[in-house]
Write a structure and sequence with these properties.
Elements lengths: L13 E5 L4 H11 L7 E8 L11 H28 L3 E8 L2 H12 L3 E5 L5 H6 L3 H8 L3 E5 L16 E6 L4 H13 L5 E10 L9 H28 L4 E8 L2 H11 L4 E5 L5 H6 L3 H8 L4 E4 L9
Parallel strand pairs: 1-2, 1-4, 2-3, 4-5, 6-7, 6-9, 7-8, 9-10
Antiparallel strand pairs: 5-10
């Protein structure tokens, strides 16, 4: 079903799953289980710090008891997650870190050489993010690898994989290297899970060029449509070869991020997969980026693919 040597020449996926026991973390884990290939190695990470404790309101002795209670609860939650992962046949390593969550998560991803970092998101407003930031936003900006960003309203009951509906995924296609890496990653994962992939390309809305440039603009638009249609056909063919039913969708709009978010919402997609071209902080502030806006405003989970994605040569 796959091209010669495609699967034999790639290494097992290594995943860092950051969890704090919250609904959003559990939702991220449940979605991750629908994506992991059987041989995936999982590092389960929990980060704690005194910032979580009401240090100004309790006596030193009580504070020590609170720390012990928090440590015990963390170990209980991690043990339950380890059991779920091991039952699914994954090799599991546990890491417990203390300090700033955003810093510790990205450092851990670098240390274990993760291919994918999975983390939940609370969803801050743009104003709050500008002032304070959030763990998930900081992780996305500084992660050395691809990121799976979960949403709490997407939580599912684990287990019962057989007979479950295929995971409906919107895949953003733009011809860039990160976009191709996202498509290859889904093609690999589709060998082990039931996916329904909607390949989506967004072309810019036509501008009013005036009478003199109307014919030139029309020719350029036609060529752009032909190239986009060809790219969609090629991507769909690759995914279909891997066993995933696909459909292609060519959209037109002035804001690609809004078009993709609305498409995913309107078609009931449970995941929006995009490539990340990696704009600088200044570029994001002045212009924004498609990936940044999608991460911020999408109502479904987001798979943000960086570099070569989840396909790593051995």
């Amino acid at each position: 079903m796959t091209g010669p040597g495609l699967i034999d020449t790639i290494a097992p996926v290594k995943v860092l799953l950051a969890t704090d026991g919250s609904d959003r973390a559990r939702a991220t884990a449940d979605l991750l289980y629908r994506l992991l290939p059987p041989q995936a190695e999982v590092v389960l990470l929990s980060v704690s710090g005194d910032s979580e404790l009401p240090t100004d309101e309790v006596a030193p002795g009580a504070l020590s008891q609170l720390r012990d209670a928090l440590q015990g609860e963390t170990e209980r939650l991690l043990a339950a997650e380890v059991e779920r992962l091991e039952e699914a046949g994954h090799e599991v390593q546990v890491m417990i870190r203390h300090g700033d969550a955003g810093d510790q998560v990205t450092r851990a991803a670098e240390e274990v050489k993760a291919d994918l970092l999975a983390v939940g998101s609370r969803g801050l407003s743009p104003f709050k993010e500008f002032l304070l930031g959030s763990v998930s936003q900081r992780v996305i900006r500084h992660s050395p690898c691809s990121v799976l960003l979960g949403r709490p309203d997407q939580q599912e009951e684990p287990g019962g994989r057989e007979g479950r509906e295929a995971l409906r995924i919107a895949l953003a296609i733009d011809g860039s290297d990160p976009s191709r890496a996202a498509a290859r990653s889904l093609a690999r994962l589709a060998r082990h899970h039931r996916f329904e992939v909607h390949c989506v390309t967004v072309l810019p809305a036509p501008r009013d060029w005036g009478v003199d440039l109307a014919r030139h603009a029309s020719d350029a638009t036609r060529r752009d449509r032909e190239r986009a249609a060809q790219l969609l056909r090629q991507t769909c063919a690759m995914l279909q070869t891997a066993g995933a039913p696909t459909s292609s969708h060519l959209l037109v709009g002035s804001d690609p991020a809004e078009e993709l978010i609305e498409y995913a919402r309107g078609h009931g997609c449970r995941l929006l997969a995009i490539g990340n071209k990696g704009l600088s902080a200044v570029d994001r502030f002045l212009l924004g980026s498609v990936s940044h806006k999608i991460v911020h405003y999408a109502t479904c989970p987001v798979l943000l693919v960086k570099g070569t994605g989840l396909v790593r040569a051995v």
